[in-house]
Amino acid sequence: MGGAEAPLISPPCLAGQQGWRDLRGAQSPVQHGDPPGQKTAPHTCQDCQIFLKNIPAIYGMWLVTLLLLYSLQEVHSEDVGSTRLYFVNASLQRVTYSSSVGVSLPCPAGGTPSAILRWYLATGDDIYDVPHIRHVHANGTLQLYPFSPSAYNSYIHDNDYFCTAENQAGKIRSPNIRIKAVFREPYTVRVADQRSMRGNVAVFKCLIPVAVQEYVSVVSWERDTVSIVPGNRFSLTSFGALYISDVQKEDALSTYRCITRHKYSGETRQSNGVRLSVMDPNESSPTILDSFQAGEVNAGQSIELPCTAGGYPTPTVRWLKDGRPLPSDARWTRRLTGLTISDLRQEDSGSYACEVTNSFGSKEVSGLLHVIDPLRVTLSPKNLKTGISSTLFFTCTVEGSPEYTISWYSNTEPIVPDQHISIQGQHNDTLQITAAQKFHSGAYQCFASRKGHTAQDFSIILLEDGTPRIVSSFSERVVNPGEPFSLMCGAKGAPPPSITWTLDDEAVVRDSTYKPASTRCRTA
User: Fold this and answer.
1) Which of 136, 151, 182 is the endpoint of a domain?
2) Interacting residues of 145 by C-beta distance below 8 A, sequence separation 6+
3) FRET label pair with 218: which of 149, 395, 432, 470, CA 20 to 30 Å apart?
């Protein structure tokens, strides 16, 4: 991108009466009377039609002086041309796969024209091919092949990676992506026998080993080998528990078991069969059968806070938020299994308590709920084109969680403050570049991170040697006295130059005789 040209300033023109015959040759940079639809130069202003009346012939030399305006110009994509960088999936930050299947991961970044795509470890080390284990394809796809447990290497199969895209615009990098292989390993799920009084609630839980809890979930429950359909007295919670309400004597005649499935291998497991012991009601204080703890959930999702109790008389349930009864809200639904909150918002954060009470006593379970908004980052200005020695400011605006850290990158390299670059602001959210040099051109990225979640935005900077230069001008002309004429001039520079006109080294003053059409024209 270092060779990109400065913007063309649309040719201002000076107009007067034309009466002398046009003696310009075919090689003149600016043709008078161009064919319809043909422009004299890219990005021209509209033709000037300003006339002088009844003046004698004027002899002299017209000289165009370019004055550089020291200002920044925010540019649109067409100013940079067709060169750009982009992200296909900037939110991708975790990939878990089965070791027996493998995974293919396209680079989340790209560019136009085609960018060079490369993968690295989070440490910055280059990715190298390992035959039959890891390979980076020519199109930038990272492939990890199926492997046996004996071939496991945490450096390859459980590590942080990132991908970069590079072209003339600069070089950008994705957030770190955690890539983790999961083995097919034996595990057993089990259920414990339960006791309940007639008319109370019975709760069965499917116990999954901690080592595989992240990948194994309950998909169904069976009663005497027949799959249980939720409804009537049977309920399934989002955590995989089975609730039987209004327990009856005949419920003790059946055998219950849970069915689980591994998220990545697809394997299913069936638990042991268990029974329910049903007792006659006996006066007793409440006993908590299922409860919740502290949790952190993203805004917009739903959550279920389980809470149910046994006892006789049957306990009543009351929910509190921050010590007060729950306000009326259609998003909060009280169920037999507990409290369900849908479309979570940040204001739903707080301390929730479930009180169960009967005439023989009460019990309470509580927990903190923290609702967080996903991080969103905006870097401004988005694209910038200016001249060398300019001063640049970038602002990184972060929305979402108030707890985050900011880091800056230039062409994928961490920015280290020096004599030209400083990082400012309470959250390091402002980047300043003073006396910018050509090597400061490229892609700048702002990353905001919080507890393993990262968001970013980037800006492309083009710094040019903005020395003004004339790219199209007029040649010698002869006109008759009293007839109008016009002269045109086009120039380039960064920032865009303004144009002044002189006649025999004297500045042309706009009046009824000389009418400069423009001293600075907007680029198209």
Assistant:
1) 182
2) 102, 132, 133, 134, 135
3) 149
